[in-house]
Structure formats: structure tokens, C-alpha cells
């Protein structure tokens, strides 16, 4: 949270490098958040992600740090999705995914919370694919992207390295760190035993 607040302060001060960091960190995560809510429409998700980040920049002075910055941005994204659906002449029904429930949102918030502030409650498993995506969105951008490319898109380490502009060895190291953080995030949601079983299943490599 402290890093997020520093980033927000830098953005409000007009730090150009902070703008680059903001878009690099949140664009992919917002895109992945929007895509399933737009029925997999890639172009619409890209438009919504861009519009969301622009609106977020314009409203940064209203961010109070009471929730994670990504959670706050997602609230804006939901409104952008509704606007997009209305403009497209479709009925904007409320889309409810597993990560929208208060219980799971609390668990996902715990991924970024300090150790002493993490809730102890565990949450029921269900619709695991959607929850995995939600967990990936809470990881640092490079970690979430690398894991998605590896285990969802099936890219090789070499292809991931090229996308990230780094060497193969560095990409392997990044993937290893990303898997460790992903496992810790899953433990926060499901508990250690369930996380071990999930990792062993190979859905995200151990």
C-alpha cells in the first residue's frame, strides 16, 4: 500500500516516469479484468482498459488509499464497461463473477496486505479458473503476465523472454519468483493444503 501511495503522489506531482510505471503496472491487469465481463471481446476490452486508466488518472485526487489501488481502478472499470454496453445499444446487465463477492474480495485484498492484517478465514473453492485469473491480476504486472503467457497461452520461456525484452535465464528466474508469489496468494485464499494440491495439479507449475 505504501508503494501505491508513493506512486499516486508522484502522479499527482506530474512525474512523467510515474505515468509510464502506472500504465505498465495496471494496463494488462485492467484488460484481463474487463475481458470476461465483455464476453471475450478483445477490442472492447482494450478500449475499456484504456478509458479506465485515463479516467483513473483524472480522478486520482479522490483516491484515499482505503482499498488497494487496483481495487479502486476496478470500480472505475465496471462503470466503463456499463458505459460501453450502453453505447453499444445493449442491455447492461450486472455481471457477477466470483471475485466480485465481498468474501473473495477480502481474500484477494489480503494478498497485498501486510502479514499482520491478513484475515484468517478461508473461503470455499468454486469456479477456480475465474479465481485464478483474479489472483493473477493482483500479482505484480510482470509476474501475472508471465504466468498467463506460460500456463494459459502456452508460450515457451524463450517467447516470454522476447516479450519482456530480457534473457532466457532472467525469464526463467522471473517465472520461478512468480510461481512462488502465486502459491502464496493461493494460500491466502484457500489455505496451505489446498494450495499444495492446486499446484500439484499443474494448473500453475510448481
Output the number of helix runs: 10
Number of domains: 2
CATH superfamily of the largest domain: RNA polymerase sigma factor, region 2, helix turn helix motif
CATH first level of the largest domain: which class?
Mainly Alpha
Largest sheet: none
**Number of β-strand runs:** 0
Provide the CATH topology of the largest domain: Rna Polymerase Sigma Factor, Chain: A
Average pLDDT score: 75
In percent terms, what proportion of residues is strand? Answer: under 5%
CATH architecture name of the largest domain: Orthogonal Bundle
> Which structural category do the helix and sheet elements fall into?
mainly alpha
Ranges with pLDDT <50 over ≥5 residues? 113-126
SSE pattern: HHHHHHHHHH
State the share of residues found in helices, binned by percent. Answer: 55-70%
User: N-to-C terminal Cα separation, in Å?
Assistant: 28 Å
Please compute the radius of gyration using only Cα atoms. 17 Å
**Shape estimate:** globular
